[in-house]
Amino acid sequence: MKKIILLTLLTVLGTVGLHAQKFALIDMEYILKNIPAYEMANEQLNAISKKWQTEVEAVQQDAQNLYKKYQADLVFLSADMKTKREAEIVAKEQEAQELKRKYFGSDGELYKKRESLIRPVQDEIYNACKEISEAKGYMAIVDRASAMSIIYASPKIDISNEVLAKLGYSK
Known about the structure:
Number of domains: 1
Structural class: mainly alpha
Order of helices and strands: HEHHHHEH
Radius of gyration: 29 Å
Mean pLDDT: 85
Helix content: over 70%
Distance between the termini: 61 Å
Largest sheet: 2 strands, parallel
């Protein structure tokens, strides 16, 4: 009796393992390059980034100019004046660092702007992938662009064009 139960259990487990799981690939870089909203968002981010970088560099240049002026006037300055100028220079350098952190820090303005401009596009792609996955029975969809462990993948399982078509950007 035990042998029959064991044999039945092994047979059931063996048939469950025979059902192949379906996988698909997408190329996120390819998809994003074909979405105009993403390209426009990137251009906006680059323009804002350059503007802010120029602003930070201007404050840093001010600090350098103050230091050069201080170096040139050093022999003529009293101890009080030296201390005052040094404090001015340090304050300007701190202002530059604070501005840099405000704009480009891990929780800075650029991060927030990127989040507000690019997150909606990423959410659209995610939802399209989810719908395709549910409709076609895929267990997983892997991004070919970021998955370093994929050495070769058949183009037959790449659904990037399908995702673009679902988003309304068919090629």
